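TL;DR need structure tokens for one chain.
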Amino acid sequence: MIEQHKRPLLLTLLLALIVLGINHLSQRLGSSTPTPATNQRSNSADYTMQQIERLRTNAAGQLSEQITATTLRHFPANPDSANADDHAERIELEKPEIQLASGDNSSLWQLQADSATLITNEIAELSGHVHAQQLIQQDDQAPISFTSAALVYDFQQRTLTSPGSVTLTQGATAIHAGALQIALDEARHGVIELSRSVYGVIHE
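>> reply
TL;DR here they are.
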């Protein structure tokens, strides 16, 4: 676990994981974890836009997310479709970039992927060469980044979840895990949890 306000190096986290054998998150990331979209939809887009930029704010009017993409396709909800994936409104993005901000408008993480699906403006499912870069660093430590094949961002809960394998790096240290969750809400601001076959590598 890494806290944003008092975060040890990944090497310290690696040693702690070896001692503690963290596995509780794997139970939490079971059937309840959203599954990234397969993009196998049956209905057609009602409009398409190019080179889009979209800003989202919280209840206080502060910037929470900035979303850019090369292409946006909007699919209206179709409750009569035989495909359950069509029942909810969704937006599909090509080459998305999502920048997550804190309450004081400072940027926290930058997310990039080959594609993303926004479902009812509550869930963003990123897929294909997902890369996340921490934008705030403290105590002269190198920023943390990670890669994965899929990543789910919950706009309401403000959590990042990778239901599959992920590799985190910080400086010369890399940690591999089978699942990841990062909490960005005010109560758990910056907490990173890893589970499933966690191991690390230190590059000399």
